[in-house]
Amino acid sequence: MLNIKKPYIIGETAYNHEGDLEYLYKMVDDISELGLNAVKFHILLNPQSYIHKKHVLLNELKKWIFNKDQWFELINYSKEKKLDVVMLCDDVESVNYIIKNDLNVDFIELHASSLNDYFLLDSLSNWPKEIILGIGGSKLDEILYAVNFLRNNGKEKIILMYGFQNYPTNYSDINLSKMIRIKDLFDLPVGYADHTAFDDPNNEFVSVMPASMGFNILEKHYTPDFGKERIDYHAAVGKNQFLRIKKLIELALCVYGTGELELSDPEKKYGNVGPMKKAIVAKKFIKEGENLSLDNLWFKRTIEESPIEQNEFLKLLGLKAIKDIKEDELITFDKIKYEFKNNNLEDFTNLQV
Description:
Elements: E1 8-14, H1 21-33, E2 38-43, H2 47-50, H3 58-63, H4 68-80, E3 84-89, H5 92-100, E4 107-110, H6 118-123, E5 130-134, H7 140-152, E6 158-162, H8 171-174, H9 177-186, E7 190-194, H10 203-212, E8 217-221, H11 239-256, H12 265-270, E9 279-282, E10 297-300, H13 313-316, E11 320-321, E12 336-337
Parallel strand pairs: 1-2, 1-8, 2-3, 3-4, 4-5, 5-6, 6-7, 7-8
Antiparallel strand pairs: 9-10, 11-12
Domain AFP-like: 279-339
Pfam families: NeuB, SAF
GO molecular function: N-acylneuraminate-9-phosphate synthase activity
């Protein structure tokens, strides 16, 4: 996931399945066929541990959850499909179930609504793998609390997932530049959870923008029924959109590069002295024994490559030509003489003769 040269894309299923297990398996199949890196599930085993008994969504929520055996089969099926598995745990029971049964899960994620939930954070103390913290809509002190809590419990494998749901999408609220500051402040990898509205004409463009800034992790809602009014459909894209997003992210990260300061081979070829960068040549005929000077040297693009860099020009001044040099001829080391000055050992105070 941390290889910034390659995209790491998580297809989030959320509750778009609405409790239909067959539909959820279809989502896994699609996410695998798309060639995404991971599938993300929302797991909830005890609704009353997550939501108040008087909450209007409680009864609906109960219809959307699966039992432990169903989750066990679904997780293994996802691994057979060559997908990493991200489990967003909404209750302590889910975390304990995954850890105690050593399920084949790659990441446990906490939703931003649980970022400072002591009991959920504490339940992760025995989780040996990576933890994803949803930080959308969270203040810096809230992020710091969660990160310090985990670090104090020996957890160093932490990823911060930036982004929040906002309909209709207000682009200025996305504030991608904040990701850079968060990454620097916490010295942790940061991913982007995009929630741009499904019918926003800039959905794909916005989804890819973090990759152009070097952030290779994207979390994005998927649905087999693009635009159909189901739970969590507002930010969910279909197969065709996801394919385009995947290709665009690969392109964006390729263009972003590695930040390596050393010139690549194509850069070296482009910047060679002579055919590309002007070479130092004789401005006029230079006779053998004549000193090189501002009057008889010039810079020109040439057919031949020159071994002398442009910034070595001042070092040439005053040197003597050891052969005749024609006008426009390259200045090369075999045509000039450099006399090394003999140093007097007495000039070096730390040496004794």
